[in-house]
Design brief:
This protein is of the alpha/beta class. It has one domain: 3-Layer(aba) Sandwich (Trna Endonuclease, Chain: A, domain 1), CATH 3.40.1350. It is 26% helix and 36% strand. A 6-stranded mixed beta sheet has the order 1-2-3-4-6-5.
Length: 92
Amino acid sequence: MMFMVIFTEQEEAQRLTCTLTLPNGILWAIEIKRSMTPKLERGDHVACADLNPSRKIVVYPGKERYRLAPDIEAMSLVDIVQQLCDINKGMP
């Protein structure tokens, strides 16, 4: 099994953008923020409109998992790693 990840570091160095293509071709857009109160900016929405990912995730240093918008999840690094491990277990 192989995941393809593309990172784009932003100039202000407050975030890191990652697109993750799962082995079945499903695309996730992942925004990594340093803020405990993550907010998405206009550029994030534009990128997602262009990419049309199946999931939009904001990883932040907090522990709570919640929705920033109906289609955008905020979660910890531990949560997203656990999800990827679960996907990996289900793949041949």
